Amino acid sequence: MVERDPDTLEYRLGWRLFSLVARTAENRLVRVARPVMRRLAAEVEETCHLCVLRDGEVLTVLSVSAHSYRAHGWEGRGVPAARTSAGRVLLLDAAPDELYVRLGMGDLSDGFDGSLVHSVQELWQRIQEARTLGYALVREEFESGLVGVSAPVRDFRGRVVAALNVGAPEERLGQSLEETGRLTVQAARRVSATLGWEPRARSGPDRLL
Q1: How confident is the model at residue 208 (pLDDT cuts 50, 70, 90)?
Q2: pLDDT tens, 127-141?
Q3: pLDDT tens digit string along 107-117?
Q4: Nearest to 139 by CA among 84, 182, 71, 70
Q5: How does strand 136-139 pair with strand 146-154?
Q6: DSSP state, residue 174
Q7: What is the pTM of this model?
Q8: Do the beta carbons of residue 5 and residue 12 sit within 8 Å?
Q9: Which residues 6+ apart lie within 8 Å of 87 measured at CB?
Q10: Any residues with CB less than 8 A from the CB of 4 and at least 6 apart, and which?
């Protein structure tokens, strides 16, 4: 819980305590997000996911569905951040140097033919597109036939702490992906407000953030 600096011999809080605090915060995030996700899932008639960033991967911590189409197996599963809409909004606060640290300098597509992101530079461009729209979307960049959209959830400081994601087969969601993105932004705003975020008035394309 505490550790001692070998040079100054002073005591400070240990990483284990910070880890416990972070886990408590994440549990609160799940509690406040669940009812909002239920409403969003009912609106779009698809499964909604709550995602957080873990190093270079996106981890799904909660999935909520309004019907029998629920996508099973996502909770607790990590997927590459660069190729997913959730990953791109979770990295909205990251500077280019941080992207290199988190993701490395290799091919970010993992060899998947449908990916539009192969380098940190290309990922940075996609993140800026998400910043302009207020949400990120992907069309068959993570998995063939699968499309998805995500919006950022912010805490009281305005920092992105999670992403709300809706993903489904192209044949079901492809035609309404942009509209789903706008609904997902509204839902993410409601979760953010519960966490204490108060959006500042903005003008221009950034206004949804």
Answers
A1: very low
A2: 999 999 999 998 877
A3: 555 554 555 56
A4: 84
A5: antiparallel
A6: G
A7: 0.75
A8: yes
A9: 53, 57, 58, 79, 80, 81, 163
A10: 10, 11, 12
